[in-house]
Design brief:
This protein is 21% helix and 30% strand. It is of the alpha+beta class. The protein has three domains: 127 residues, Trypsin-like serine proteases (Thrombin, subunit H), CATH 2.40.10; 93 residues, Roll (Pdz3 Domain), CATH 2.30.42.10; 146 residues, N-terminal domain of MutM-like DNA repair proteins (Alpha-Beta Barrel), CATH 3.20.190. Strands 18, 19, 20, 21, 22, 23, 24 and 25 form an eight-stranded antiparallel beta sheet that branches. Strands 1, 2, 3, 4, 5, 6 and 7 form a seven-stranded antiparallel beta sheet that branches. β21 and β22 form a beta hairpin. The longest helix has 22 residues.
Length: 424
C-alpha cells in the first residue's frame, strides 16, 4: 500500500526543493530520456506555484486508475487518474515516480462538487508519441506535426448471442464485428470481419484489451497511440476461418467533413452573402446552444461517412445568422445547412463563395451593358436542408452586403483558410 504525503515549502525541505528544481530544468532538456513506461506506481506531482500560496508546493499521491476520458467532442485521451492535488499552477509540469522518472504531465482536475482528489496526468507514453510526431522541416525552418492515426472502421460488440449466431461466429472466437471500413485500408479489413487481435493483443467481445495485468481499456488506444510509420497488424475471423493475419499497414489520419479544429493557426472561415452569415460546419458549431436537433442529426449522419462517401464535398455549409436588412425581410430561418446555390450542389464554403462572386460579376456586367435601359434582375436562390429556399435579388444583395460590412465593421466579406502546412 502506498502512502500519500503532502510536503509544503519550509526549511526542513529546502534541499528537496532545490533538487526538484534541478530535475524540472532537466525535464525540459531531456524529457524523452526520463520518460517511463507502464506500469506506473508511486507518483510525486511537480513542483509548482498552484493556487493556495505564493511559494513552491509539492504533493504526492498514487495512481487511482488508467482510463480514456473525453478530451474533445471527437477524441478520447488516455489519462492517469491520481488522488494527489492538482490545481492551477500545476498544469504542464512533470510528475515523477519513486525512481525519479517522468510518468506524465499534469493537465486537468475534476471540479465536480461530488468528487474529491480526482486529477489527471497525460501519460509519458502519450507525451513520447506526441514528441515523436513533431519534426522540423529544414527546408523552411518550420515545424510540422503528423496527426495521430484515426480508427479506420466502425464496430459493434459481440456480447449478444443473437448477433453471434446471425454472423455465424463460433463460441471460440472473440472480438468485435466491423460494420463499416474506410477505403484507406485498401481492402485489408472488410465489412463483416470479426477483429480478434491487434498487434497480437486479444480484443474482447466488448472491444477492450488488457493494458496492465488485469486492467482493461478500449482497443482504440492501441491505434491512436501509434508512432509515425509504425505498422499495425490486424488478425480477423473471416469467411468461417479463424486467425487470419492481415498484411501490416501504416494507419493515418482520416479527415472528418465536420471540421475538428476551427481557428487553429488561422482566423475562422466565414462568408457574408448579402445579409446572410455562412460558416463551415464544425464540431464546435455542432455543440453551440442554438444548433437545433435537425442540424445535429444531419451533422452526425455526415460525420459517419468516410471521405469516399462525401459526394465530392470537402465541408458542409451552415447558415448561422440572418442580419437585419431590408433584403432579408421576412426571412428568419438561421441554423440550417445550405444544400445548393441556384440548383448547384454546394461542395464547400469556398465553392459557395465562388458561385456568389460569379453571380455578382454577371450582375455588374449586365448593368454596364444595359446602360440606361432597365436590367433584367438576376437572383441567388439558397436551398436549405429541411426548410424553404431563400431568394435574394443579386444587385440588392450586393448593396446590402456593402451596408452590412460597414455597419458591423467587418473588414471583408469572406475568409477561407488555405490547408495548414503545419499538419500532415
Amino acid at each position: 500500500m502506498w502512502l500519500v504525503r503532502f510536503c509544503s515549502y519550509n526549511r526542513s525541505c529546502i534541499d528537496l526543493v532545490l533538487v526538484l528544481n534541478l530535475v524540472v530544468c532537466a525535464f525540459y532538456l531531456s524529457l524523452i530520456l526520463l520518460l517511463t513506461h507502464f506500469p506506473i506506481t508511486y507518483l510525486i506531482l511537480p513542483p509548482g506555484f498552484p493556487t493556495g500560496g505564493s511559494t513552491i508546493c509539492i504533493t504526492e499521491g498514487v495512481v487511482s486508475r488508467i482510463d480514456l476520458i473525453s478530451a474533445s467532442a471527437f477524441n478520447n485521451l488516455l489519462t492517469i487518474q491520481i488522488d494527489a492535488a492538482i490545481n492551477p499552477g500545476n498544469s504542464g509540469g512533470p510528475a515523477f515516480d519513486r525512481d525519479g522518472k517522468v510518468t506524465g504531465v499534469a493537465f486537468f482536475k475534476n471540479t465536480n462538487k461530488k468528487t474529491d482528489n480526482v486529477g489527471y496526468l497525460i501519460p509519458s507514453d502519450v507525451v513520447r508519441t506526441f514528441l515523436g510526431r513533431c519534426e522540423l522541416d529544414r527546408s523552411n525552418g518550420k515545424s510540422v506535426y503528423t496527426l495521430s492515426p484515426s480508427v479506420p472502421y466502425d464496430w459493434h460488440p459481440l456480447e449478444n448471442n443473437s448477433i453471434r449466431l446471425y454472423h455465424k461466429v463460433p463460441p471460440s472466437v472473440h472480438g468485435v464485428l466491423l460494420t463499416s471500413v474506410s477505403n484507406t485500408l485498401n481492402g485489408i479489413l472488410q465489412k463483416g470481419d470479426v477483429l480478434t487481435h491487434i498487434d497480437g493483443k486479444a480484443v474482447a467481445d466488448d472491444g477492450q484489451v488488457v493494458l496492465r495485468t488485469a486492467e482493461l481499456i478500449q482497443h482504440r488506444y492501441l491505434l491512436r497511440g501509434k508512432r509515425v510509420d509504425e505498422p499495425t497488424i490486424f488478425t480477423v475471423f473471416r469467411d468461417g476461418k479463424e486467425s487470419q493475419q492481415c498484411p501490416p499497414t501504416v494507419l493515418g489520419n482520416i479527415p472528418s467533413i465536420c471540421l475538428r479544429w476551427v481557428g487553429v493557426d488561422y482566423p475562422p472561415d466565414y462568408l457574408i452573402l448579402g445579409a446572410l452569415v455562412m460558416l463551415p460546419l464544425s464540431w464546435a458549431l455542432r455543440s453551440h446552444k442554438r444548433c437545433g436537433t435537425r442540424l445535429i442529426s444531419d451533422c452526425i449522419d455526415w460525420c459517419q461517412k468516410w471521405p469516399s462517401e462525401w459526394e465530392g464535398k470537402t465541408n458542409l455549409v451552415v447558415l448561422v445568422d440572418i442580419l437585419s436588412h431590408e433584403v432579408t425581410f421576412s426571412y428568419s430561418r438561421p441554423w440550417r445547412r445550405v444544400k445548393a446555390y441556384n440548383g448547384v450542389d454546394i461542395t464547400s464554403l469556398e465553392h459557395l463563395r465562388d458561385m456568389w462572386q460569379e453571380s455578382c460579376r454577371v450582375a455588374e456586367k449586365d448593368k454596364q451593358e444595359a446602360g440606361d435601359k432597365e436590367v433584367e434582375p438576376t437572383f441567388a436562390r439558397i436551398e436549405l436542408q429541411s426548410d424553404d429556399d431563400i431568394v435574394l435579388e443579386v444587385s440588392a444583395a450586393m448593396a446590402a452586403e456593402s451596408d452590412i460590412l460597414k455597419r458591423h465593421q467587418i473588414p471583408k466579406a469572406s475568409h477561407i483558410s488555405p490547408p495548414n502546412p503545419s499538419y500532415k
